[in-house]
Amino acid sequence: MSSTIPLAVEFTGGLELLFSNQRKHQISVPSSDSKGAPSNVGYLVKWLCENLIKDPRKEMFVLDHSVRPGILVLINDADWELEGEDKYELQANDEIVFVSTLHGG
Amino acid sequence: MDSINGADAQVQRLRQHITATESQLRILKLQLQQAEQAAEAAEAARHLNGAYQGGLPADWRDEIFGVLHHDTPGSLAQDFGHNGEFGDAQIFARPTTEDVRQQRWPLASEEYKRYGRQMIMPEIGLHGQLRLKNAKVLIVGVGGLGCPAAAYLAGAGVGTLGLMDGDTVEVSNLHRQVAHSTARVGRLKVDSAVEYLRALNDSVNYRAHPSHLSPEKAIPIFEQYDLVLDCTDHPTSRYLISDACVLTGKPLVSASALKTEGQLIVLNSPPRLPGDVNGGPCYRCVFPKPPPAESVLSCGEGGILGPVVGVMGVLQALEAIKLLTAKPVPTGPGWSMDFTATKPSPPAEPTRPTMLMFSAYSTPQFRSVRLRSRRADCAVCSAQASITRQSLTSGSLDYVAFCGVTTPLNTLTPAARITATGFSRLPTDGSNILIDVRDETQYAICALRGSVNVPWTGNADTWLDQAIMSGGVAEHGDDGRDRYVVCRLGNDSQLAVKAAMDRIGDGRVKEIKGGFRAWREEVDPSWPDY
Ligand SMILES: [Zn+2]
């Protein structure tokens, strides 16, 4: 019941400003969600909003219950769309990176 | 005496004559020898010509002629049926086989010297150099990315380099936009860059497009090129450039940078018709929805480190060179040097679209991540695309509206605002407090004596807590002193004043209109203009 999954989470492209200006975080999330289903990336995003984000501007990270447009989610160095998006079930020591796209030039 | 003197003079004359004649004879012999050598060399060259057909090893001849006729890899001109349809195509007439046969070597001797260091690498070689020479590359945006990208592509001998930008050079560009110069501040960036590039390599055909890209212009201009580099700085242009690349069948090398980080993606590579799943993904496949306008930071707002954007521009040039010089994929087991037999293009090897991320202060600095392939419901590159050449050229697409705009803030009543001039006339007797909401770094560059620094955090509650903690705002509202809030340009200060008013109902808090920019313009011209 109380088992957790250790994860490496990273924020780049300016997103780190929302997370105490720290890029890399070692976290542990519950291995199953409130309904008892295995925790997936969708659950992780919600968990980050409730537990890790320090900046009140949550809308800069999540819009309409999903990661806001312009943020790429990478699961072990692959676009999450290659891995099932928010349905991807978290594995121990997965590396999840949230990248905000840059536009300057 | 006279006769003796006369004989002496005679001897003297004869000696002089002999010396002169001998000298002339030596010159004649030397000339004969040179003429004989030249005749021999000409004879040898005739033999060589016969043996090697123009100085090229026979094995290579077909390849070189093939390259000269071969469309630069990646161009879809033929699939799209527009090859030569546009008048501009004639401007870039490529050398014919006959032209080449008449020369002994396919490149001028100066070109072997200039490009030798890259030509001796198997990745480039003679064929690669010829491909570069025949290639036409368009760089959109001649700023921090475009300047280094253009320099390396011109240096490498790309035949035609198009530069597109409507901006003029500003002093604040010069720490990173290396093609411009102090003397050329105020000139069009495209003209400034062409001047720099001509000094670097005059044999490149430079084409200046001195305007910003618009949907109406994009397709006719992109069709004149083989490859496009997106070196712009806003989502609107990024979506437009990607759409135009898909619709004209051009591969796209896209990069961006901000602060200490950069990103690079090669898109629409290989370029294929919309609906062809073997084509590389486009910008919309990766980012179907634009980011909220308020999340987009420019280099002017967020800052940029010169070498960071420079690295990204140089990497764009590198990817462009790789694409332009790539050998066509062999179609079967019988790998041959015959590059003419590569049409129609073979099925692409499984493409692995990636994004390269650079972060100057992270370890490791570089990281390459796998991206998705073409999106089945992409608005431009899928079978059900809604964006077409017609919709682009007719101007019916509004990219600005698609990406959204941030409207200048004007949220306060006149009573809650004061001009910079008005503020400068207030007494400095401690009856008021100036709150500076810029971040610590900017505050440390320049600040007004006696001001309190409470950086705007983007959120009313957290900012107010900090303002109270630092003594900028009194905990229980009115303490008899007026508060004035200032920032760099006059946006954040409005938000902060609003936060203070909403929370503690303090009617004695005002913002300085136009921030420190107005302060410099109205009150103190020496205020640093950073
Ligand atoms: Zn697409």
Automatic annotation (TrEMBL), chain A:
Annotated pathway: tRNA modification; 5-methoxycarbonylmethyl-2-thiouridine-tRNA biosynthesis
SUPFAM superfamilies: MoaD/ThiS
Modified residues (1-thioglycine): 105
Keyword Cytoplasm: yes
GO cellular component, one term: cytosol
Record CDD domains: Ubl_Urm1
UniProt entry keywords in alphabetical sequence: Cytoplasm, Isopeptide bond, tRNA processing, Ubl conjugation pathway
UniProt cross-link Glycyl lysine isopeptide (Gly-Lys) (interchain with K-? in acceptor proteins), position: 105
Principal location class: cytoplasm
GO biological process, alphabetically ordered: protein urmylation; tRNA thio-modification; tRNA wobble uridine modification
Modification after translation: C-terminal thiocarboxylation occurs in 2 steps, it is first acyl-adenylated (-COAMP) via the hesA/moeB/thiF part of UBA4, then thiocarboxylated (-COSH) via the rhodanese domain of UBA4.
The organism's place on the tree of life at top rank: Eukaryota
Localisation per UniProt entry: Cytoplasm
Free-text function comment from the UniProt entry: Acts as a sulfur carrier required for 2-thiolation of mcm(5)S(2)U at tRNA wobble positions of cytosolic tRNA(Lys), tRNA(Glu) and tRNA(Gln). Serves as sulfur donor in tRNA 2-thiolation reaction by being thiocarboxylated (-COSH) at its C-terminus by the MOCS3 homolog UBA4. The sulfur is then transferred to tRNA to form 2-thiolation of mcm(5)S(2)U. Prior mcm(5) tRNA modification by the elongator complex is required for 2-thiolation. Also acts as a ubiquitin-like protein (UBL) that is covalently conjugated via an isopeptide bond to lysine residues of target proteins such as AHP1.
PANTHER family noted in UniProt: RURM1 PROTEIN
Similarity annotation: Belongs to the URM1 family.
Protein name as annotated: Ubiquitin-related modifier 1
The organism's taxonomic lineage, starting at the top: Eukaryota, Fungi, Dikarya, Ascomycota, Pezizomycotina
Gene: URM1
TrEMBL record, chain B:
InterPro entries assigned to the protein according to its UniProt record, in alphabetical order: MOCS3/Uba4, Rhodanese-like_dom, Rhodanese-like_dom_sf, ThiF/MoeB/HesA, ThiF_NAD_FAD-bd, Ubiquitin-activating_enz
Pathway: tRNA modification; 5-methoxycarbonylmethyl-2-thiouridine-tRNA biosynthesis; Cofactor biosynthesis; molybdopterin biosynthesis
GO cellular component: cytosol
GO BP terms in the entry: Mo-molybdopterin cofactor biosynthetic process; protein urmylation; tRNA wobble position uridine thiolation
SUPFAM superfamilies: Activating enzymes of the ubiquitin-like proteins
Source superkingdom: Eukaryota
Record's catalysed reaction(s): [molybdopterin-synthase sulfur-carrier protein]-C-terminal Gly-Gly + ATP + H(+) = [molybdopterin-synthase sulfur-carrier protein]-C-terminal Gly-Gly-AMP + diphosphate; [molybdopterin-synthase sulfur-carrier protein]-C-terminal Gly-Gly-AMP + S-sulfanyl-L-cysteinyl-[cysteine desulfurase] + AH2 = [molybdopterin-synthase sulfur-carrier protein]-C-terminal-Gly-aminoethanethioate + L-cysteinyl-[cysteine desulfurase] + A + AMP + 2 H(+)
Residue span, Rhodanese domain: 433-528
EC number from the UniProt entry: 2.7.7.80, 2.8.1.11
Subcellular location: Cytoplasm, Cytosol
Residues noted as binding Zn(2+) in the record, renumbered to the chain: 282, 285, 378, 381
Residues that coordinate or bind ATP: 144, 165, 172-176, 189, 233-234
CDD domains per the UniProt record, alphabetical: ThiF_MoeB_HesA_family
Cofactor(s) named in the record: Zn(2+)
Entry keyword Ribosomal protein: no
Primary localization class, coarse: cytoplasm
Keywords noted in UniProt: ATP-binding, Coiled coil, Cytoplasm, Metal-binding, Molybdenum cofactor biosynthesis, Multifunctional enzyme, Nucleotide-binding, Nucleotidyltransferase, Transferase, tRNA processing, Ubl conjugation pathway, Zinc
Task performed by this protein: Plays a central role in 2-thiolation of mcm(5)S(2)U at tRNA wobble positions of cytosolic tRNA(Lys), tRNA(Glu) and tRNA(Gln). Also essential during biosynthesis of the molybdenum cofactor. Acts by mediating the C-terminal thiocarboxylation of sulfur carriers urm1 and mocs2a. Its N-terminus first activates urm1 and mocs2a as acyl-adenylates (-COAMP), then the persulfide sulfur on the catalytic cysteine is transferred to urm1 and mocs2a to form thiocarboxylation (-COSH) of their C-terminus.
Record-linked PANTHER family: ADENYLYLTRANSFERASE AND SULFURTRANSFERASE MOCS3, UBIQUITIN-ACTIVATING ENZYME E1
Protein name as catalogued: Adenylyltransferase and sulfurtransferase uba4
Species of origin: Friedmanniomyces simplex
Source taxonomy: Eukaryota, Fungi, Dikarya, Ascomycota, Pezizomycotina
